[in-house]
Amino acid sequence: MTILIAEDDPLTLDALATCIESEGFTALRAPDGKQAIDLWRSEKPDLLCLDIMIPHIDGYEVCRRVRASDRTIPILFLSAKNQEIDVVVGLDLGADDFIRKPFTRREVMARIRAALRRRAPEGESEHFRLADLTVHPSSLLAKRDGKSIDLTPREVSMLRLLHKHRGEPVSRDAFLDTCWGIDYFPDSRTLDQHILLLRKKIEANPAEPQIIRTVRAVGYRFD
Amino acid sequence: MRPALITILPMLAAAVLVMVGGERMARRDLETRTAADRGRLLDFDEAFRTELARLDALYLAHLDDLTNAALLQKSDEVSKQAANITGVRQIRIFRHKGKDLTIRGSREIRRLPEIVLKDGKRPLDLNSASVLDPAMLDVPLPAAGKWLPTSDPDLRLHCRTPQGGLLMVFLIDFRAVHVSTAIHLASWIQTPLSPLRESGERVVIESTASGELVSLGPQQHGPAASIIPIRSLSGDWQLRAWDGLVVTRSHDPAVITLALTIAVLLLASGVMLFLQQKRALKLAAERVSFVNRVSHELGTPLTNLALNLDLATECLTARPQESLRRLRLVAEEIERLSRLVANVLTFSRRERDTLILQPVLCIPADIIQSVIENFRPALERRGIVIETHVSAGETVLLDPDALSQITGNLISNVEKYATDGRWVGIRCEIDSDFLTLEVRDRGKGIPPGARARVFAPFERVLQATNEGASGTGLGLSIGRDLARRMGGNLELLETTKGASFILRVPSPPPPAIVSSTDAT
């Protein structure tokens, strides 16, 4: 999934893009409104994160132009403009959410996932099962006994890989190649940390995992 | 509009009230009275009395004629004659011998009261009937007759005894008599009244029965100076005359001046209040806006702090270099926040008049270089080339914090508003005990119309959302204030491209230390 970030502050742009990429999304960086429009046209991202005060074409105008031709793409405003009128204008222009600065990584990622889920309702999309867990990739959700579990695109990708190779061990390299990409060189601890977090999320008892089992010296397996 | 409603309008109303009250207090009315011309009035009175007496005599003569006619002529003929005499409605004739006789006079719509003798025929309506004493048949009445009232105040009885044993009673409608008399007098009076009219006398002639007949002269004031009553058959008349009155009005200039002064003061107070309230409202709005701007300015660095700290923590062990890079960014953002807080504090101290500079011995080049180094990563990230000519390496006496703050604000403006120019030139030198710092960029520059107000607090030239830059609007205001407190000034230079600010402040060398051996 691709997320376009339009933000003129280089530090915010870089930090936000890194946060987004660390969850398995692809981040497109636009330092001004004009580049945001160009990237939206050429790359067709799945979600837009727009600052309001950006050079050349402001965030409101970017939102207006995008909404004129795409009524479904989730648009989030991330702005330090914090007055009620700014929020109202943003939402009236068709934005799905307005995140006031300062925000934390967890908050912005949760809102991005929520916006993507709203766009792709679980019932209408493809899904696969891992034991008693049903995974809905397009809405970044897993469900057990009617209870929803938030997932990142990378976690969905990891679960999909396990599901695809059901009964076979999946090597650590296969995980890193498939879920992180060839341009990224995470170390083995990164994978372990992600597996640990994923088990906490999806396993009924993370101490005795039933979905992601460890295959010593190889990787992981789903039976 | 609302401030005007609660300031200027009440004051304007109060000023008008003061002026009206002042005019009343200052008013001096001088009354000059001219006595009525008694001689002319008495002449007219005599003529009027004579005319009324003539009319009375004429009417009685008509009644005489009618009495004689009633004795000699037939009832029909008498009736016709009676109809020609104003007010005669009926003639009743009572005799010792023979029947009572009734002769109709002029037509009358209303029901007339019955006229009967006491022992005679019983009247139908006893309340309205006029019952006469039968003894009147035997006792002769005066030749001019006798007048008796009836139950109707407009109707009166005129009784005559032309022969013994015969009583003739005329029922006269005096309302008709009054009307006829008034009509006659209205035309008659013009000639005798002309002397009074020509002399401008104030006279009213009125009757109790028919009201005002004539009114001469201007409006009368107060009770009349002379009242002459006249009684006649046609009613009671009154001649009322007033003395001439000329009122000369003047105003006490002292009172008028005082009222005018108070009114002007009230109006001026209203205008002052209005302006003050407008200023206060503007200031309040600016403060609210300032608080919003400060919180807005805090938003981005705080976000950067939160995100970078999170990312730095995440890769602390796995990728320590990346973690270090993130922590450096955190330090940069803390620097940015510190500048913002310093500006807010300086502004606050200036507002409370507690801003005091503390000059100490320092090297300006070091201070300016340090500020440049703080900004270097941020400027380079934005692709801005930094060109410096900093030669002020001498030790001088000035406030290093103030110099640092001014330099920081000037470079921060380049970072925010002149990124397009991709260049900043910083020149600093000391010449003749004066430090000169010039910060020049090649950005959009400052529009000519905004040059005067860039140094005003809260002013921001670029406020549109698509400018991509925000700010508190305090940087240049604080910069100039600090420069002036240092004994110098911060000015905007005329340039053809970009903006160029120049700071000139005194930078005296340290005082010479004279040792005791040098002194000897």
Number of domains of chain A: 2
* N-to-C span of chain A: 28 Å
**Level-1 CATH class name of the largest domain in chain A:** Alpha Beta
| Class of secondary structure makeup of chain B | alpha+beta
Shape of chain B from CA axes?
A: rod-shaped
Main-sheet strand order of chain B equals 3-2-8-7-6
Detailed description of the structure:
- The complex is a heterodimer of chains A (223) and B (520).
- With 223 residues, chain A is an alpha/beta fold.
- Chain A folds into two domains: 118 residues, Response regulator (Rossmann fold, 3-Layer(aba) Sandwich); 100 residues, Arc Repressor Mutant, subunit A (Orthogonal Bundle), CATH 1.10.10.
- Chain A is 43% helix and 21% strand.
- Chain A contains eight helices and twelve strands.
- Chain A has a five-stranded parallel β-sheet with strand order 2-1-3-4-5, sandwiched between helices. In chain A, strands 6-7-8-9 form a four-stranded antiparallel β-sheet, with helices on both faces. A three-stranded antiparallel β-sheet of chain A has the order 10-12-11.
- The longest helix of chain A is centred in the middle third of the chain and has 15 residues.
- With 520 residues, chain B is an alpha+beta fold.
- Among the domains of chain B are: 207 residues, no CATH class; 151 residues, 2-Layer Sandwich (Heat Shock Protein 90), CATH 3.30.565.
- Chain B is built from twelve helices and 20 strands.
- A five-stranded antiparallel β-sheet of chain B has the order 3-2-8-7-6.
- In chain B, a hairpin with a 5-residue loop joins strand 6 and strand 7.
- In chain B, helix 3 packs antiparallel against helix 6 and helix 10 packs antiparallel against helix 11.
- Chains A and B meet through helix 1 and helix 3 of A and helix 7 and helix 8 of B.
Summarize the SSE layout with pairings.
The complex is a heterodimer of chains A (223) and B (520).
Chain A: E1 2-6, H1 10-22, E2 26-30, H2 33-43, E3 47-50, H3 59-69, E4 75-79, H4 84-92, E5 97-100, H5 105-119, E6 128-130, E7 133-136, E8 141-144, E9 147-150, H6 153-164, E10 169-171, H7 172-180, H8 188-202, E11 213-215, E12 219-221
Chain B: H1 2-6, H2 8-26, E1 27-34, H3 38-72, H4 75-83, E2 88-95, E3 101-104, E4 115-117, E5 130-132, E6 146-149, E7 155-163, E8 166-173, H5 174-188, H6 190-198, E9 202-207, E10 211-215, E11 226-232, E12 235-242, E13 244-251, H7 253-314, H8 320-351, E14 360-362, H9 364-381, E15 385-390, E16 396-398, H10 400-417, E17 423-431, E18 434-441, H11 475-485, E19 489-492, E20 500-506, H12 516-519
Parallel strand pairs in B: 4-5, 15-17
Antiparallel strand pairs in B: 1-13, 2-3, 2-8, 6-7, 7-8, 9-10, 9-12, 11-12, 14-16, 17-18, 18-20, 19-20
Helix pairs in contact in B: 2-7, 3-6, 7-8, 9-10, 10-11
